[in-house]
Amino acid sequence: MESLTREVRFASVMKQYPTEAADLFQACEDMAKKRYQSYVRMTKMDWSNE
Prior knowledge:
Blueprint: H1 2-5, H2 8-16, H3 18-43
């Protein structure tokens, strides 16, 4: 979460909507983890044309 607060877009959200910011940051983290797992899964696939 520390890296998110360094970005202007997230810092602005934190200032304007402090109560919702934690939920939004958690949602961003969850989606990033899902994206990462998807990339890991893709690296294990056979991409050859055989």
